[in-house]
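Section: Multi-chain targets

For targets with more than one molecule, the full set of components is provided together so that the structure can be written out for the assembly as a whole rather than chain by chain. Components appear in the order listed by the source. The example entry contains two components.
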Amino acid sequence: MYRTHHCGALRIDDVNKKVTLSGWVQRVRKLGGMTFIDLRDRYGITQLVFDMETNAALAEQANKLGREFVVRVEGTVVERTSKNPDLPTGDIEIIIEKLDIIKASEVPPFTIEDESDGGEELRMKYRYLDIRRNPVKDALILRHKVAKAVRNYLDDNDFVEAETPYLIKSTPEGARDFVVPSRLSPGEFYALPQSPQVFKQLFMVGGLDRYYQIVKCFRDEDFRADRQPEFTQIDCEMSFVTQDEVIKMFSGMAKYIFKTVKGIEFEGDFPVMTYEEAMNSYGSDKPDLRFGMKIHQLNSVAQGKGFKVFDDAEYIGGICAEACANYSRKQLDKLIDFVKKPQIGAKGLVYVKYNEDGSFKSSVDKFYSQDDLKKWAEVFGAKPGDLILLISGEKNNSLNALNELRLEMGERLGLRDKNKFVALWVVDFPLLEWDEESKRFHAMHHPFTSPKEEDMHLLDTEAEKVRANAYDFVINGVEIGGGSIRIFDNKLQHKMFDLLGFTPEEAEAQFGFLMEAFKYGAPPHGGAAFGLDRWVALLNGSDSIRDVIAFPKNNAGRDIMMDAPAPVAKEQLEELSLSIRQNKE
Amino acid sequence: MYRTHHCGALRIDDVNKKVTLSGWVQRVRKLGGMTFIDLRDRYGITQLVFDMETNAALAEQANKLGREFVVRVEGTVVERTSKNPDLPTGDIEIIIEKLDIIKASEVPPFTIEDESDGGEELRMKYRYLDIRRNPVKDALILRHKVAKAVRNYLDDNDFVEAETPYLIKSTPEGARDFVVPSRLSPGEFYALPQSPQVFKQLFMVGGLDRYYQIVKCFRDEDFRADRQPEFTQIDCEMSFVTQDEVIKMFSGMAKYIFKTVKGIEFEGDFPVMTYEEAMNSYGSDKPDLRFGMKIHQLNSVAQGKGFKVFDDAEYIGGICAEACANYSRKQLDKLIDFVKKPQIGAKGLVYVKYNEDGSFKSSVDKFYSQDDLKKWAEVFGAKPGDLILLISGEKNNSLNALNELRLEMGERLGLRDKNKFVALWVVDFPLLEWDEESKRFHAMHHPFTSPKEEDMHLLDTEAEKVRANAYDFVINGVEIGGGSIRIFDNKLQHKMFDLLGFTPEEAEAQFGFLMEAFKYGAPPHGGAAFGLDRWVALLNGSDSIRDVIAFPKNNAGRDIMMDAPAPVAKEQLEELSLSIRQNKE
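Its structure, encoded as tokens over all components, is:
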């Protein structure tokens, strides 16, 4: 037997027990004739004691142990003379009578400490050692707890966990599919699912009523920061529900997760905000509501005073940063540089300082009187000491820049506390968005999203104005999930494919089985999907989802531990009837 | 709102309630001036009543409803005059005041009844309709319950559910990998995991201590009956454990599943049988212990009497079928045909009838006296009325044929009751098996399995005799799972790869990261994996795992509902730098 207890188990009540422990050597300290070893496993650390006087040979052996050696020890639990209140096992230590080295260790490539000396690339290559560090181990355990909370909540609400296939048919709508060549059908391919969307809808057609799955999804995208080619989704669907009922169900799930995993209780319902309001007041469909600093439009009070930039602008809007009127020239210049960055793209920034003495100082004093500026301040409800920041131009671009500026100011003012969680639902998304490049509509959520009943009459005439029964769940400015009430009528689904530029033949080839399914008594249904990686990262206070994935890929989609992807044997390709094209010149 | 209650909810206590229900029309019956509709959803059936006298228009509308129409009704719960004790809702019915047709249905391609008129191929194509049938729906719900029981048990035992990647590196050891071409690394491929074996071992190196996952695995095999290219595994691993501890943990899991899901309690430990005993007594490493009928060897009592077939045989063995001495010539001939089938491959079958009067009648009376035959009967402990059946030849072939014959006789005698579950562990498997074709050893379990300490000295000399710390879990003759204590020493792992015919370069290229991991304080570890599909099929009394998979592939690996695999667009292949080879002549 390797152990009677793990390394986090023993307490003062266990004194005098004979115990056997196994674990990793975290630290060896010599103090006079004594040797102390911190023995570590997943559950904690227990202090082992070797005494030169009572057993010199054993103590010598202990002195030779290196970091990360795996050992098995037998000994007796005693009360410590100097206790360690920071450790759950800190009241006791083990006087060791027997020591076996199970496995020596070479010196690890980085220190196995909470603050490691290893860079990210090195820690990814030796991820199995990185997992020994508390921050990584704790993130994986947190992820386990979140998944467990999700399952418990959904189980209690009559959801059936059901598995959908991974080897499916390629449906190029949406992102790019990963494909899997079929050996038995040469020249044909399976695809890995971007989501189980179609299957969960078929479960509803099949009468399963409530379905969920925590499931891997795959997207072959050009990697950007914090995207992974495989990611995990909490995927859910319900029959005979309205949008309000779906929102209520998954608000309950979110509350249950926060309560179970973080001990945080939310009072009342999460706010529900329309897409339009979110865009106008926050410049984003995923507003961070940990702080106010709403965007206000100023066209009516700022135009017509001779300032050409504003007079020509489609949109003028701004935010009010409390108690920032004392910003220096240098600080303001930095903000101007920030909004002019290409990825933000504003042309400039107008500021108005509402001085403590009640006067205003702005970068546009030439055009606006104190009274004019006072009217602006009233729009924001600004107080003396506040700083108003304005951006103008094309409406959507300006709102986007104001969103970035608002987040930046929130960051600077310490208003984005990682331990504070503010959630909301954003609803009434547009059904479609126009893509200038391809000159056609794209589905804002996906092609199966139902238009709002009251906008249905616009489908043929002003499709861009049709709102969808779609909703996103947002926490702290991060889109954690979303969903929609689905189309369950084959004619409407056909029309939707048509709007999205599918020919009837393409629609039939790709989704014929779904439209066929709708002929046989499809129930009304809707659902939601949540990004488990992102939700756990948020709860863990991590900036990257890589921190909460056991074996993540790097930003180039590569597993640098096992070195994948990699070439395969010639015979494998031959069996698959494939050959590799050489790059064309 | 679509419903206040689902269709399995209402009881006698709900009488006089105003309710709203939604569901599918299972059946419309007209009886005099009344129309009765069975409204169905996942939860049950509720009877709706329409009365021609009180509301003729509504009753007319109801009469026109077809099977599988989706409707929403409002009405009042009343007590039935003639109750249906077979239905949980059988005490009540709903007098309908309002009826909305949510969605009409075309006539389904097969009847949505427990016994459908649809063949398997048709039901697979319309799997979403098949799922509406109770046997399929109940199988999916049973699967959910099993998964939930597994998670609850493992959670309670400190296992961490952790996800491993699906896009990994191809390791051609074992079955054939499915591969996934990488677009960003042209000419390179990911592979889909055949199991998370290597990752779970790395979790142990990482100190996670106890890991589990219910996870999809992939094997590109030539399809045989009841194989699926993707299947689901309950995958587990533990650190600092002995074989006995692993067996104890997962015996506990099996008992918990049986108790939770089927209400069956097992007393005491499951039997543990060595591989050698299983082979000698049952001719199989997965004996069906629902019945006895053990195989006995007869060489010592049957050779040397002039019967050349037996005298020349390496092995003579048989079984004793109770109370079958009255088998007719025709019945015996059928058994002879059975064992001579190519897949069983016996040359013939010798029988001995132990007549009720104490005399013996055999097919080899020419060579054996009554006394000789009496000695055979004693080996089996046979009684008057029993039938002894013997097969001889090469040992392994004969045992294999006797295993098939024993199962066939068990079937004929009704000894293989689907509602009876008998489990055991088979242990001490050989580490290696010799493959005549490739003239090299294969790992009987996998290359990471640890040899038994006491056989380690045979590794260099008689490797075929080395037993492994490997174990299989068998229920009713079906291998439900298995596992092993793993190698955790890089030198031993190197030696194992060497025995399996890997060059050092191949071993390094494929498993270098694992052997590197073992250098940094790897703990002793072991685990097990269980086939969820097979376990659920067994609990469900299904012969095929397809019955317990929501969207299975057919025997050619094809999803006939969505028609996958399928050709992909030329552009997709170009992006992947691939081209399809034309068949060579």
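Chain A touches chain B through 123 residues (CB under 8 Å).
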